Amino acid sequence: MTTEIRTSGTSVRAQMREALRTGGQGLGRLAQAVLGALPGFVLPVGAAIFSGVVTSRFLEYYYAAPLVALALAAVVGAAVAALCVRRTADRTRRFLQRWYGIRLPAVYDPLPKLESDERGHWWTGYSYHRSGTVARYAQLVHWGLRDRTTRAELLWLVVNPVLVVALGGAVGLLLVLGTAFALSGPVPANAFGPVSPRLTSMALSLLVGIGMVLAGILLAPYAVRGYAEVARRVLDQDGRATHAQLTKRVAELTETRADAVGSQAAELRRIERDLHDGAQARLVAIGMTLGTIEHLMETDQDAARELLSEARQSSARALQELRDLVRGIHPPVLAERGLGDAVRALALDSALPTEVFVSLPDRLPAPVEAAAYFSISELLANAAKHSAAERVWVDILYRAGSLRITVTDDGVGVADPSRGTGLRGIERRLGTFDGVLAIDSTSGGPTTITLELPCELSSPRTSTSSAKA
After folding, report:
1. Residue 415, Cβ neighbours under 10 Å: how many?
2. Pairing state of beta strands 115-116 and 122-123?
3. Were 441 and a residue from 54, 130, 432, 447 both cysteine, which residue would form a disulfide, CB within 3.0 to 4.6 Å?
4. What predicted TM-score, i.e. pTM, was given to this entire model?
5. Cα-Cα end-to-end distance for the chain
6. What is the phi/psi pair of residue 434, to 5°?
7. Rounded distance, CA 265 to CA 260, Å?
8. 52-66, 283-297, 388-402 — most confident range
9. How many CB atoms lie within 10 A of CB 271?
10. What is the three-class DSSP state of 411?
11. Are 461 and 400 in contact (CB under 8 A)?
12. Contacts for 460 with CB less than 8 Å, ≥ 6 apart
């Protein structure tokens, strides 16, 4: 029985310590919320009051001074509030993520570009303006009022101080009144046994004060949770950020799908052209040559033998062209032996000495292998043509669900996607797989181009090797 009582007492003390610790943490977070809300309220109101007072003093003898002062105060207050909107919302988002792990990503609609017509007027997307500055500000205001995330941030700028006053005021009132009662709050009381009425009143005041302070401390975490819940609902009503992210994602997928369809159509046209102008033309010529040979077999056998030799050479060239065409569609070595060996074979045919390092877990998905292979092929061709390099290094690694390829050359640098279609074509090819292309190329070199393609693999076995070509 004694052990149970001791255990129960220890448990109660531990719970009290945990409650006080949580309450102290809540008080700290509530203080952060109050301090974070002050700039978004004090700065606009202070700027409006200051500008109104200065204007009314300056126009003291003008009959319309109050109206002008009010109008200017409203404009200045709105301008300062506009500057505080995003900062206040971002500060609240950081609080929620740090306190409770709640992520509220801010996704804004793109701001359209201004367009100028032949008259020199500026079109904002909904109205014309003669001044480009006026058009820019009008477009910004119109965009801010239509953008869903910005409207939520404007609402939060108004709700935030009201919420802080309501929640923080309740907790602060309990703490202040409790401290006042504990120090000097007389509670009327009669004598309690040998204790005088004064001492009884002081003891009761101390107990009431401590109780109010403890109530304020214990209420603070709930106030912070209420603050976080209201902030989440205002800044992300009905999952608006998620909806905007999904909309942006759909737009990206639509664009990459269009690029993939366009690239596929261009590739089919290239294959058709190569077949028509190359192997098909040679096969037609071989057929005509064989027809001529049939007529010459009995009259001029020497000429027939020469034409047979030409036909054999033409058939060999047609076969080589077909092999090159197949290799351009999907190299056999890539299909049979994977990306590592295919890149090594590519390096052997490169015009520059190329060193290849490969660390891959077994085989990659076939579409990813093809995209990586043709991207590396394009980069090696660019290095040979434009970089004036002496050596190229290719690193192929798979780490944390992502294929990372780095192609480095010691050339003159300054690789720029806007100068040609090669790098842009690689970007479009990678975009189909949500891949990215990063370029580090300063004047004088070296040039390092990094490709990253997310992909999942099932085999844990890792193959690491390097080779020089």
Report:
1. 24
2. antiparallel
3. 447
4. 0.48
5. 83
6. 65, 30
7. 9
8. 388-402
9. 14
10. coil
11. no
12. 361
CB count in 10 Å sphere of residue 318: 18
Q: Which candidate, 52, 79, 54, 77, places its Cα nearest to that of 67?
A: 52
* Average pLDDT score over residue span 169-178: 86
What is the structure's pLDDT at 190?
52
DSSP 3-state of 405: strand
Residue 355 bridge partners (DSSP):
393, 468
Dihedral Cα 183, 187, 188, 189, nearest 10 deg: -90
Q: Whole-angstrom Cα distance, residue 164 to residue 396?
A: 54
**Who contacts 286 (Cβ-Cβ below 8 Å, separation ≥6)?**
311, 314, 315, 318
Report how far residue 382's alpha carbon sits from residue 18's, in angstroms, rounded to the nearest whole number.
65
427 close to 417: Cβ distance less than 8 angstroms = yes
Q: Of 387, 429, 430, 423, whose CA–CA distance to 408 is shortest?
A: 387
CA distance 79 to 102: 30
Backbone dihedral angles phi then psi of residue 398, each to the nearest 5 degrees: -125, 115
The residues near 36 (Cβ < 8 Å, ≥ 6 apart) are 88, 91, 92, 95
CA distance 389 to 337: 29
Closest CA to 429 of 385, 392, 391, 378: 378
Would you tell me how many other CB atoms lie within 10 Å of the CB of residue 450? 15
Alpha-carbon Rg for the chain in angstroms: 38
List Cα–Cα distances, 390 to 151, 347, 414, in angstroms: 56, 14, 16
For residue 98, report the phi and psi dihedrals to the nearest 5 degrees.
-75, -35
Instruction: Please report the beta strands in 251-368, taking only residues with DSSP state E, as ranges in sequence order.
Output: 354-360
Residue 191 CA to residue 203 CA, distance in Å, equals 12
> Which tokens is 120 given?
């020199």
Contact in structure between 231 and 92 (CB atoms under 8 Å): yes
pLDDT at residue 362, rounded to an integer: 74
Task: Inform me whether the pLDDT recorded for 134 exceeds 80.
Answer: no
Q: Please return the burial class of 157, using the count of CB atoms within 10 Å of its CB with bins 0-12, 13-18 and 19+.
A: buried
- CA quadruple 412, 415, 420, 426: dihedral positive or negative? positive
